[in-house]
Amino acid sequence: MASLKAPARLLELVKAAFAKALADGDLFYFATQVQDMRVGALSFQLRFSPALANKPKPQPPSPKRDAAAPSKPFDPFEYTSPPGPLFVGDVGASHFLVLNKFAVVPGHFILATRAYRAQTHVLEADDLHATLACLRACEEEEEGVSDGNDGDGALFAFFNGGAHSGASQPHRHIQMLPVRAMREGLPAASAWRVLMARRDAVAPFTTFAEDITLSTTREDLYAAYLRLYQQAVRAVRGEDEFAPASGEAAISYNMAMTRDRLVLCPRLAEGGTVTDPDTGAAVGTVSLNGTMLAGTALVKTEAEWEALRRHPRALTTILGSVGVSEPRFIDDVNKL
């Protein structure tokens, strides 16, 4: 089967669409403060966006005239013809690209299924194939452009699946973040790198990974995903567990894809409590989605921001509690 094609000059297209949608009031951009945090031997981004705590609720379409008809749940990724102002382009016949209406990272865009597919179900081969097409398009566009962190690639893609993954919408979608935009606000000397782009990275949570390439076939990519999914299921439910390769996923998990790695992380919780380091009182909760596989975390209140900045090990504790704990991380910390 021939490789899918994403729109040409994808990053440039997204940047232009983002600027227009922002100017027209069709999306919201929430600027953040950012600080490097140590998580064992890793550099993690902690971002703070106070405005995000009060983000506007998405407005559903006007109700139908027939008040007796059952109401349909609002779906922000429902494909319409003609497409709305956040539309970026198509990726094959089954997927399309749309801007994230509530962005923390400039140029945050989303790959969604044109027909409704459940976010809680095991992914299908075309979902992964279309994701790789976006990664390939961005790498081709950025070829020859160096910012000193070429190992991270141009695009970070992630998926939130299940109740503990940070998922917020039932319509299947995979999110895309331009890596250059993810570095905005960091000091020039920052050691931050896309976490799962590093083969030597040991995080507090267990992950399963396989190497891929931009030319990996649809069939091989899907087979790699299913192998990692089965490993993640066994890590949560026992070595003898085998989960069906379709239908409702057996566990919550995050998936991340870069230009040369496919990673799955089984999830046991969505987040953890932030406590004041002086009083021990709870000041908030950090919720984590697939961006933790990039090495980022987001807080929405000043109390959470200050507590974690003053007590960085609290972030490490939360990261270790949301998935299956990683013994190698504990060993690495003890060596520091």
From TrEMBL:
* A Gene Ontology BP annotation from the UniProt entry: nucleotide metabolic process
Report which residue ranges the record marks as coiled coil.
none
Q: Which residues form the ATP adenylyltransferase C-terminal domain?
A: 203-324
Q: Where is this region: Disordered?
A: 53-75
Q: Identify a single GO molecular function assigned to this protein.
A: ATP binding
Taken from the record, one Pfam family name reads ATP_transf
Query: Which InterPro entries does its entry note?
Result: Ap4A_phos1/2, Ap4A_phos1/2-like, Ap4A_phos1/2_N, ATP_adenylylTrfase_C, HIT-like_sf
| Residue intervals of the Ap4A phosphorylase 1/2 N-terminal domain | 6-184
Organism domain of life = Eukaryota
Provide the protein name.
Answer: Bis(5'-nucleosyl)-tetraphosphatase, putative
Query: Which species expresses this protein natively?
Result: Cordyceps militaris (strain CM01) (Caterpillar fungus)
> Which lineage do the record's taxonomy fields give for this organism?
Eukaryota, Fungi, Dikarya, Ascomycota, Pezizomycotina
